[in-house]
Write a structure and sequence with these properties.
By secondary structure, this protein is α+β, with helices and mostly antiparallel strands. The chain has nine helices and 14 strands. It has one domain. The strands form five sheets. Strands 8, 9, 12, 13 and 14 form a five-stranded antiparallel sheet that branches. A hairpin with a 2-residue loop joins β12 and β13. α1 packs across α6, α3 runs antiparallel to α4 and α5 crosses α6. The longest helix is centred in the N-terminal third of the chain and has 17 residues. It is globular, with a radius of gyration of 19 Å.
Length: 331
Amino acid sequence: MIVLHGLRGDDSLGFLAAIGLLSLSEQRELPEIRLAWQGGGAPMAGVEGGAHSVEELVRELRAAFDRLRERDAVIPGAPPDLPRKKVGTKDPMRMSRGEMRELFTKADTEWLDGRSPWVARWLVALTAQAASKATERADVELTPFYAPTGQMAMRTSIFEKTMDAVEVIDGPGDALTGWRRVSYDGANFDERAKRDAGVTTSGEPDNRGAPSPTWLAAMGMRFFPMTDDGRGTATVGWQRVRLYPGYTTRSLIWPIWQPPLDPVAVRTLLAHPALRLEVSPGIDPAPALPRDLTALGVTHLFGSSRRTLQQGDGPLGPARLIWSASAAHSE
């Protein structure tokens, strides 16, 4: 097994970046791999399968990144205009129900006729199909991974700025070994990227994001699809629970497991009901079905809540250990 020291499971960005590796592997942008975690409270990602060394995986990762750049695309297996490019001040991914229906219908047709099996799978991870936000425009809901501030656009804030920053550091291979940070906002995936004037040596705000793991995390968004009933939405991995004071109840909950799992098994695990938390006043959130977690090979359950900013959702905050198999067994 190849241990990837840059990807730690007790960190939301590290976990999501590891899922991005699986996603690229499933789309045959990388060699076939299976993912597991090694270590106790600070587990590191380990992969086995078609790659034989960290160096080989770094080379394959760079090649996958370069293929996207050559196509002027930001998502593998999808046309270059998904997500759609910003026009003027409006994010074109903020669509009405009718516009979104047309986009999903086209994606379904391309899936069924074999032209593009991945577009529909990416769409369902990026946007709901009918449930609207409570705005005058009645925009269809977008993935909770997208936390826009001001006039941000999904394509720009999550994908294009991140890929430009990856180029600056000649990444993305450092995601697997030791992250490099630059003046970049982190796409709201990583609270450590946000550096206000009060915490910098110069007294001026200077964001310091890690673009390589952020790009991989964006590649992993496909493993967290959305569902909706026309009124509300649910997204794999996201739950309404406040994990620490002063943050929102919009939280990402993720498992760490021991047996090496392929992409299909990981997607199944991420959506498993055993990951749901029970939330009661005055009691720490806890899994409703801890015995099922143990049976699934889960060793730890972590979570991270979004911070709130004045003009929109803030980044994912620090990870909190919610449950561990070792502590449960000692009780």
